[in-house]
Amino acid sequence: NAGVMQNPRHLxxxxxxxxxxxxxxxxGHSHVYWYRQLPEEGLKFMVYLQKENIIDESGMPxxxxxxxxxxxxxxxxxxxxxxxxxxxxxxxxSSPQYGQYGYTFGSGTRLTVV
Amino acid sequence: xxxxxxxxxxxxxxxxxxxxxxxxxxxxFNTWLWYKQDPGEGPVLLIALYKAGELTSNGxxxxxxxxxxKDSFLNISASIPSDVGIYFCAGPTQGGSEKLVFGxxxxxxxxx
Lengths: 114, 112
What we know:
By secondary structure, chain A is mainly beta. Chain A contains no helices and eleven strands. In chain A, 0% of the residues lie in helices and 49% in strands.
């Protein structure tokens, strides 16, 4: 049983480029969550999605960030026109149903903006 | 917004010692979660607590859900080198939301 798969593990982008982070949830899990972790900090919620629907995006910056979870394929977190402050570890988690808070997290994507 | 305060920020202990760390909030939480994060990895769920006063063990780990529902404790007995990492407490935000709020973590170093 594969866990939550995130790729790439490391991503380097120049300022102004786009970053695409992918997340494949565990088999049978239809709920996906994205979190961001800055150095020496805890994880901060960004967005919660179910298949084809954004349920809660209250933690997403209003500009440049978007997320999707299509019917087929992985969930994508997209950051347009990256800036240095976007450098962080981005974690995806999944759960099989609503109300199961003990999500399974992936290993994360470490984004570095140079 | 809701915040979780973890203490201590870091701990340096000898192998074999017991460890205790805690997490407090000014808000009530109905669920408390304890995660461990190894360097370069995502957090791994250690223990979940769902009821005030609940005491739950997972091997050498024991966690308690405080009676006031505003705090939780994690104890590790007889620490070993692989206990090294960052321990986070987390809980769901109010209003039945699916999102979790995390503390800033307690960084544990175990000297062999």
